[in-house]
Every structure is written in C-alpha cells, then in structure tokens.
Design brief:
- By secondary structure, the chain is of the alpha/beta class.
- The protein has two domains: 86 residues, Rossmann fold, CATH 3.40.50; 124 residues, 3-Layer(aba) Sandwich (Rossmann fold).
- The protein has ten helices and eleven strands.
- A six-stranded parallel β-sheet has the order 1-11-8-7-5-6. Strands 3-2-4 form a three-stranded parallel β-sheet, with helices on both faces. Strands 9-10 form a two-stranded antiparallel ribbon.
- α1 packs parallel to α10 and α6 packs across α10.
- The longest helix has 21 residues.
- It is globular.
- The chain binds guanine.
C-alpha cells in the first residue's frame, strides 16, 4: 500500500511560509498586489479564479479582480495588460486561460511584462527555465517538485517519466526534473509501447487529461506516482488521470485527486507573487 502524498498539508505549509514573509514586507510598508483577469464566465475558470483570490486573502496579498465580458476584444484585453504592466504597485499579472476563441492567447501572454509573469507562461520565463537562469516557473510543475522534496523523495539519478507534453505542465516538468538531476523521458500520444516506458519510472508524472487511464499495468512496483489530472469519472465525480484504487496497491507513494497536486498550484502562485515583489524596481 502506497504512502499518500498530502498536497493539502504541504500546500498549507507553503502558504503559511509565504504569509509570514508577506507580513514581514507589510511591516516595512511593502504591499504585494496581484491582478487577476478573467474574460467570460467559463465555470471552471470562475472556480479557479475564486480559489486564487481566496489564497491571496489568506496570505495577505492584495488581489485586483478584472472580470471582463466574453465579447471583450483582443485589443481591449491587451491594453488592460499594458496598463497593469505600467503600474508600479501591481507586482503580478495573471490572465486566466482559456481565453475566448477570438483572442490570441499567445499574444496576450507575450504582452505581460516578464517581471510580472507569475504564471511563468511568457516565452522569456520558459527560455530562462530551459537554460537554468532565474525566472518564474509554471506553478503546477514547481508545486510537484515541492511535493517530492518535502516528502523526502530523491530525484537525483532517478528515472523520471512524464506522460503529457503540454506547455503548462509536461515540458516545464521535464526541465525541472532535469535540473534536479533526474533522467527524464517525456511520453505522449505518439509514444510506442508506452507501458514499457512508464514501467521504467521511479517517478511517474501523469498529465494527460484522461480520467483514470493509468492503471497498475503502467507502474513499476514501488514507484512514486504524481497525478496532475482533474477529470470527472462515469458518475461525474472528480478524479485524476490515474486509477487511484488500482495503483495505490503497487506504487510506493501516490498523490490523491483531489488533495494532491491541485492545491500546490495555488500555493506556488502565492510564492511567485512574493518573488515578483522582489523584482520591482530598486528592490
Ligand atoms: N487555466 C488552467 N490553469 C491555469 C493556470 O495555472 N494559469 C492560468 N492563467 N490559467 C489557467
């Protein structure tokens, strides 16, 4: 039976650490501010944005909410982002994705000033990560590294396999595990004999967006299994990409859904906001 990695507990520790630092800055008259922009009313986005605002309130970061109608034009959104780029008292800018189809997401991401890019999606942030320079790191993969480190799971020299190659999770995850001296393989929908690859993994990160697809036949005995999925099962119940009940008997450690990776993403966003304050001019 696998050890359950408690993302709720670890994310709470991180939020409490951030909260302490935020209070320290506040006592020096420095207030951190995150601008959160949502376009339209995608219900999942509304939940995510609500959780981000709640986390800001908890750690003591001021949040500015911009709830724009679905019909907002690309130019209107870009000019809001430019305006926020120019505000010295706004330290982080987050544009919730997905955006409506008539807005070019890449263009919006590229307009965010890299020093305010708390999501770590700007090409400059991604480039810095790939060559080992300082910059913002995408919150979900950064949170997974924290889950592993704070659970005393060694990455150095381990076989790390990632299922999924998205810009938000799979690719930055590969770079972060490499930075920690893991031996990294990325699998995707065109990978041949995928189970042969995943069964080599000491650490398996699953980010494919398919409910309960990964069962025990994908897993090496004793492996650490990290489930990034946020799916619904046949009864509409929240579940991950991993068949938890099947895999927990074989894995050495596993993250549950909910309560695994999910809360870590928001904790790392709070951490990135704290770093963003330090990037302001003259600090
Ligand atoms: N949509 C789903 N996840 C995310 C995220 O981490 N950041 C943003 N901006 N949008 C998202």
């Amino acid at each position: 039976m696998a050890t359950i990695i408690d993302g709720k507990l670890i994310s709470q520790q991180i939020k409490d650490e951030v909260k302490e630092k935020v209070a320290e800055l506040k006592s020096q008259g420095r207030e951190i501010c995150l601008a959160v922009i949502q376009v339209g009313d995608n219900p999942a986005s509304t939940v995510y944005v609500g959780n981000k605002k709640k986390a800001c309130a908890y750690v003591g970061i001021k949040s500015l909410a911009y709830e724009l109608p679905e019909e907002t034009s690309e130019e209107e959104l870009l000019s809001l982002v430019r305006e926020l780029n120019g505000k010295e008292d706004v330290h982080g800018i987050l544009v919730q994705l997905p955006l409506p189809a008539h807005v070019d997401e890449d263009k919006v991401i590229q307009t965010i000033a890299p020093e305010k890019d708390v999501d770590g999606f700007h090409p400059q942030s991604v480039g810095a990560l790939s060559i080992g320079q300082p910059g913002f790191v995408s919150c979900t993969p950064a949170g997974i590294i924290q889950l592993l480190k704070r659970s005393d799971i060694e990455i150095d020299g381990k076989e790390c396999v990632i299922m999924g190659r998205s810009n938000i999770v799979g690719k930055p995850m590969a770079l972060l595990l490499l930075r920690e001296n893991g031996t990294v393989t990325v699998c995707h929908s065109h990978t041949k004999n995928i189970k042969e690859v995943t069964r080599r993994a000491d650490i398996l990160v699953v980010a494919i967006g398919k409910a309960k697809m990964v069962d025990a036949s994908y897993i090496k005995e004793g492996a650490v299994v990290i489930d990034v999925g946020m799916d619904r099962d046949e009864n509409g119940k929240l579940c991950g990409d991993v068949d938890f009940e099947d895999v927990k008997e074989k894995a050495g450690a596993i993250t549950p859904v909910p309560g695994g990776v999910g809360p870590m993403t928001i904790a790392m966003l709070m951490y990135n906001c704290l770093c963003a304050e330090g990037m302001g001019k003259g600090k």
